[in-house]
C-alpha cells in the first residue's frame, strides 16, 4: 500500500514538469511548422526570408546579373523592369532592398549576393540610413541564424563587424531562434489587416518581388508630409551631432572591401534621391556634406560613386523620402543608363 502511495506521490510531483515539457515540445513542433514550413512571418520580414533562397537559385542558374541593396527608398524608387530596358541583353537587375535596412543589415545577405557572382552591386544609401547606426534587430538576427544566411567561413568574416551581443544572437541554438519568432503570428495578422483596410498599400507578392516591389499607391497628405519632414529633419540633426555618419561609412567601406575580395564585380556607392524640402529645413548643408563623404570613401576604395540626391523635384515623392510614380521611373531610367555604362566601359568610374 505504501508503495502505491509513493508511486502516486511521485506522479503528482512530476505532473508540473511533465506538463511544462509537453507544452514546450508542442510549441517547438508547432513553431517549426509555422515558421520553417508555412513561413508565418510578417510581410516585411518575409521579404528578407525570401532573399536567401532567391540568391541560392541565382547562384545555380544565373551569373552576371546586377543587384541593388537599399532601404525602403530603394524599394519604392527602383523599378528593375525599367532598369532592364537600359541594359544589354542577358543582364537583369534585381531589387533586394527592404524597409529599414542599411550597411549593418546588408552584412547578413552580402555572402549570398557574392555567391550569385554579380556583374555589379549597387549600394543605395539614403540620408536616413547614413544618419543612424542602430543595432541589428533581434528578429532579423534570428532569421539569418535559422535560415543559415551565413555559412561558417562567412561568419568569421562578419564577426569583427558585429557587436558581441549581435554575434551571440546570430549564432544562438536553433531552438532559441524559434522562441524569438513567437511574436510573428500576431505581427503577420496585423500586417494583413492593415493591407486589407488600406487600399493605398500594394503588398500583393511583395515578399518575393525583387523586380518592382514598391508599396505606396497614393501620395501622403500635406499635413502628414509636414509632420514627417519635421520628424525626419530633427532626427537627422540629432544623429549628425552624434557622429553616426562616420560609423556608417566605416561599415560601408567594409562591405565594399568584401565584395572586392569576392571576385570580379563592379561596385557602386549611390546616394539616393532626396526630397528638396529636406535641405530647405536643415540649417547646415547635410546633403552636400554626406555626398562629399561618400565620394571620398568611393575614391579611397577605387569604386564608382553616383549622386542622385538632387535628381527629383518635390512633387515626385510620395512623402518626405520615397520617390513616387514619375520619380520612380526617372530614377530607374538613370540607374539603368549608369549601370549599362559602367558594365560597358569595364568598370571605369
Explain the layout of strands and helices.
Elements: H1 2-37, H2 43-61, E1 66-69, H3 72-77, H4 80-84, E2 93-95, H5 103-106, H6 110-115, E3 120-125, H7 127-130, H8 138-146, H9 152-158, H10 164-170, H11 174-180, H12 184-197, H13 222-241, H14 244-261, E4 266-271, H15 277-281, H16 286-301, E5 304-307, H17 326-344
Parallel strand pairs: 1-2, 1-3, 3-4, 4-5
Helix pairs in contact: 8-10, 8-11, 14-16
- Report the oligomer: single chain
Instruction: Report the count of strand segments.
Output: 5
Question: End-to-end span in angstroms?
Answer: 90 Å
Which secondary-structure class do the elements indicate? alpha/beta
Q: What is the succession of H and E elements?
A: HHEHHEHHEHHHHHHHHEHHEH
Largest sheet descriptor = 5 strands, parallel
* Poorly predicted ranges: none
Could you characterize what this model shows?
The protein is an alpha/beta fold and 349 residues long. It has one domain: SGNH hydrolase (Rossmann fold, 3-Layer(aba) Sandwich). It has 17 helices and five strands. Strands 2-1-3-4-5 form a five-stranded parallel β-sheet, sandwiched between helices. Helix 14 packs parallel to helix 16. It is globular, with a radius of gyration of 23 Å. The mean pLDDT is 87.
List the main descriptive attributes of the protein structure presented here:
349 residues, alpha/beta, Rossmann fold, 17 helices, 5 strands, 58% helix
Short description:
The chain has 349 residues and is of the alpha/beta class.
Amino acid at each position: 500500500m505504501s508503495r502505491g502511495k509513493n508511486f502516486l506521490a511521485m506522479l503528482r510531483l512530476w505532473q508540473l514538469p511533465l506538463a511544462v515539457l509537453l507544452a514546450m515540445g508542442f510549441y517547438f513542433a508547432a513553431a517549426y511548422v509555422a515558421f520553417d514550413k508555412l513561413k508565418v512571418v510578417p510581410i516585411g520580414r518575409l521579404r528578407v526570408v525570401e532573399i536567401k533562397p532567391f540568391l541560392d537559385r541565382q547562384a545555380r542558374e544565373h551569373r552576371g546579373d546586377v543587384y541593388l541593396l537599399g532601404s525602403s527608398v530603394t524599394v519604392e524608387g527602383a523599378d528593375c523592369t525599367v532598369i532592364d530596358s537600359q541594359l544589354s541583353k542577358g543582364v537583369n537587375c534585381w531589387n533586394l532592398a527592404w524597409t529599414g535596412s542599411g550597411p549593418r543589415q546588408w552584412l547578413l545577405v552580402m555572402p549570398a549576393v557574392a555567391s550569385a557572382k554579380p556583374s555589379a552591386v549597387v549600394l543605395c544609401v539614403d540620408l536616413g540610413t547614413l544618419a543612424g547606426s542602430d543595432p541589428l534587430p533581434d528578429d532579423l538576427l534570428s532569421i539569418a541564424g535559422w535560415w543559415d544566411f551565413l555559412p561558417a567561413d562567412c561568419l568569421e568574416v562578419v564577426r569583427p563587424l558585429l557587436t558581441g551581443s549581435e554575434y551571440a544572437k546570430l549564432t544562438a541554438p536553433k531552438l532559441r531562434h524559434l522562441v524569438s519568432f513567437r511574436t510573428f503570428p500576431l505581427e503577420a495578422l496585423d500586417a494583413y489587416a492593415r493591407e486589407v483596410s488600406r487600399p493605398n498599400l500594394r503588398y500583393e507578392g511583395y515578399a518575393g518581388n525583387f523586380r518592382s516591389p514598391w508599396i505606396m499607391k497614393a501620395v501622403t497628405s500635406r499635413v502628414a508630409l509636414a509632420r514627417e519632414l519635421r520628424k525626419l529633419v530633427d532626427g537627422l540633426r540629432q544623429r549628425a551631432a552624434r557622429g553616426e555618419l562616420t560609423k556608417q561609412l566605416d561599415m560601408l567601406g567594409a562591405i565594399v572591401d568584401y565584395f572586392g575580395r569576392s571576385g570580379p564585380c563592379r561596385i557602386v556607392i549611390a546616394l539616393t534621391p532626396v526630397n528638396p524640402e529636406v535641405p530647405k529645413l536643415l540649417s547646415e548643408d547635410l546633403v552636400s556634406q554626406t555626398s562629399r563623404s561618400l565620394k571620398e570613401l568611393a575614391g579611397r576604395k577605387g569604386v564608382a560613386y553616383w549622386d542622385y540626391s538632387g535628381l527629383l523635384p518635390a512633387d515626385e515623392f510620395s512623402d518626405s523620402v520615397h520617390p513616387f510614380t514619375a520619380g520612380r521611373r526617372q530614377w530607374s531610367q538613370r540607374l539603368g543608363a549608369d549601370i549599362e555604362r559602367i558594365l560597358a566601359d569595364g568598370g571605369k568610374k
